[in-house]
């Protein structure tokens, strides 16, 4: 995806997270991510795309927390770049968060391949995505949900996403579904519909609006075949002392002497 289109799409996404419906979705992300803790600590965390106030980041205990975005925001964005061309070394990040960032890449796997490149072995990738079979997915398809600058996005099911990561050597760590209210952009209506979050888990006839898919990167361990030279030269081997073998010739005795000695004895 071209950088100009990325800027338009993710500017619109950042603006949407500041709307009443976007603020509610951010709070749902926060609540959903606080149940697990194995992936919430490490050295370096990277989030792809800036999404409003990013309130869910406070749940992570990583030493470094970076946000990569195609456009710059003071005091928020740390890496300004195309999201499928990150200026980071291979195997340099412990955890990557993808909050509604994958959808604008449609059928392209360039973002997923870039995530695989920079993520450390045994690292975690967290994808927060819209369920295409939910009311939120239907609103996105019909143009009623304005998360992006246009509707040229592709929503993936958890099954499809898991298959893609399995092909790259990942294993599903967890999968959770959340948010059962209709996508209405009105604060008062959102408050009235909040009871559906609890009832929807048991009775709501439609799937949840979002799902959180977490996968862990596995990599085959191979032996290092590089030979390291010895720091100091090896000393010459010296054979230990051998036991002395007594023989008659070494004692100066000859066969005739041995016979004479035997006779005298």
UniProtKB/TrEMBL annotation:
Example GO biological process: methylation
Listed name of the protein: Methyltransferase domain-containing protein
Instruction: Return the InterPro entries for the record.
Output: Methyltransf_11 (IPR013216), SAM-dependent_MTases_sf (IPR029063)
Gene Ontology terms, MF aspect: S-adenosylmethionine-dependent methyltransferase activity
Q: Which Gene3D superfamilies match?
A: Vaccinia Virus protein VP39 (3.40.50.150)
Keywords (alphabetical) are:
Methyltransferase, Transferase
Top-level taxonomic group: Bacteria
Task: Cite the Pfam families for this sequence.
Answer: Methyltransf_11
Domain (Methyltransferase type) ranges: 79-127
């Amino acid at each position: 995806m071209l950088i100009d289109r990325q800027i338009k799409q993710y500017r619109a996404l950042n603006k949407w997270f500041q709307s009443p419906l976007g603020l509610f979705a951010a709070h749902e992300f926060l609540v959903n991510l606080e149940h697990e803790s194995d992936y919430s600590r490490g050295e370096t965390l990277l989030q792809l795309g800036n999404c409003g106030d990013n309130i869910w980041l406070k749940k992570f205990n990583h030493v470094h927390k970076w946000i990569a975005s195609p456009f710059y925001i003071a005091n928020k964005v740390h890496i300004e770049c195309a999201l499928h061309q990150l200026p980071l070394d291979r195997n340099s990040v412990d955890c990557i968060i993808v909050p509604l960032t994958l959808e604008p890449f449609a059928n392209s796997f360039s973002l997923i391949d870039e995530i695989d490149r920079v993520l450390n072995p045994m690292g975690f990738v967290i994808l927060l995505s819209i369920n295409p079979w939910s009311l939120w997915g239907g609103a996105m398809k019909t143009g009623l949900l304005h998360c992006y600058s246009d509707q040229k996005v592709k929503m993936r099911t958890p099954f499809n996403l898991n298959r893609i990561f399995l092909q790259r050597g990942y294993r599903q760590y967890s999968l959770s579904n959340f948010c059962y209210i209709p996508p209405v952009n009105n604060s008062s209506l959102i408050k009235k519909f909040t009871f559906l979050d609890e009832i929807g888990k048991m009775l709501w006839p439609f799937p949840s609006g979002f799902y959180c898919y977490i996968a862990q990167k596995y990599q085959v361990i191979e032996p290092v075949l590089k030979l390291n030279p010895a720091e100091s030269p090896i000393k010459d081997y010296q054979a230990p002392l051998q036991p002395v073998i007594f023989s008659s010739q070494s004692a100066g005795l000859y066969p005739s002497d041995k016979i004479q000695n035997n006779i005298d004895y």
